[in-house]
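Hi U.,

Before I forget, here's the chain from the pilot set. I'm dumping it here mostly so it's searchable later in email.
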Amino acid sequence: MGEILEFDVVVAGGGHNGLVCAAYLAKAGLRVLVVEGQEILGGDTTTEPLTLPGFRHDPCATAFELFQGSPIVRYDELGLRQRGLRFLYPDPVVTMPFEDGTSLTMWRDRQRTIREIARFSHHDAEAYQELLAEYDSVREIFNAHRYTPIGYGPSLEERLDALPNGGYWKRRYRQSALEIITEYFEDDHVRAFMLWLAFMTLQPVDRPYTGRLAYALPHGRQTNSWTLPAGGAGVLPGLLAEIIQEKGGEIRTGRWVVELLMENGRCVGVRTSDGSVYRARQAVVSSIHIKHLVDMAPREAWGEAFLKGVAQWQAGCTMFVAHYALREPPRYPVNGEPLPVVTAGIAGSADNMLRLISDFRRGQLHLDTPVLLVLTPSVEDPSRAPHGYHTLKVVSFLPYELAGGDPSRWDTLKEDVARQLLDYLRRFAPNLRDEVILAHYVESPLDLERRNPHNWHGTCHGGDMSPAQSDELRPVPGWATHRMPIPGLYQTGSTTHSGGSVTGGPGRNAAWVILDDLGMPAEAILRAPLP
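Structure:
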């Protein structure tokens, strides 16, 4: 028999958004409990010894660039910087080698990047300057939308309408990233580079309403680099846990929430796998994936419309990840010289990017010329590996459901797939010989779901960020304000506005709504310095 305890708020799920929400509620003086099924906190923001002792890998999230725009970081609303949260800004930002022996490298110095592009096309160098300058004028509007709960401010369309050139940006926003990049750039190397950048939030670049990504992703990387949290992604949940506990909250790990407790139609707590009961006087906050959440209360409690909306949920693009412990870092041809770089992209060509998307949609493995994101954080952050050694993360974009519809096939395929991806990478980093590799650890999209149930069908972003699953339609039309159909129950995490990636947006937005519902001065609490 487990324990029986009561708190003001119970948060089910200790991913970074659940912890952000809990930290703000604790900051407001509420007594909060966070319950997490895994033995460690963080969800998709963890750092673990996946290969060998002393080698510290990020299984999912590695880059914290989007987090730089969050009020959590910009204004240090939770005191994370005071507690030692520190970011690293690698230079060069990213390099992309091509099979013809050339490479295109983004540097932190904008003018240096422009000169790099000019080696391929003077027209494209000028277009890159224009693209960044245009986004300078609207980036704060998109950022404000991300960190405002739905219904608590103007919609994105209304924000754009208020601009003198609002019609221009409404069109750009609705276009595909492919349309915009094809319009701006003429050289195929540059187009491939820009399409690859735009794809880094795992949205198909040929889909309408991805137009902003053609601007936002290169602008963000150019401004903040491929931002790394010093010490690894797991530093963030550790600091958030400190805040919650210092404010009188508690944390339980290794206890999966299996049931929402209901009384008179209201959610009043949760039951965990060990039989413990945690009651909530004010609110229960879930970051459980909505596909699993609806099984934790009677079906009639949700209502037919909500259940139908959840049934329609789409996973979107998924990742295949291989981690390596290395004797030396991969070296890429940067302007003809082999250079260790934190981030490398392999795209091949603009046409290859589109073939990847087509193959993904058909459940096919795109392995002849794979598209890769390759990360070696230890180049910038030596704490990730023993002295002189390195960690490597090779990410490709492969479907959870293979042609034929059986994801269990991944268990027999994954080692061979990882080897094919590594062999292809060696074309651009030939020093990655077998004797350089000490150990490896592979996770297919199916393994990513096993790692964290919130990675439903292998998606680390909670689900697709298509127009049908964004803004006022996320997670379900009518329930985008973090309030669920069951009174007393709120939802946060990547299935809610503003979606996946490490932003803290869903956690902060949910806390805003909860504090407002409790009659507390929400905005003042969020923005005040942590006492």
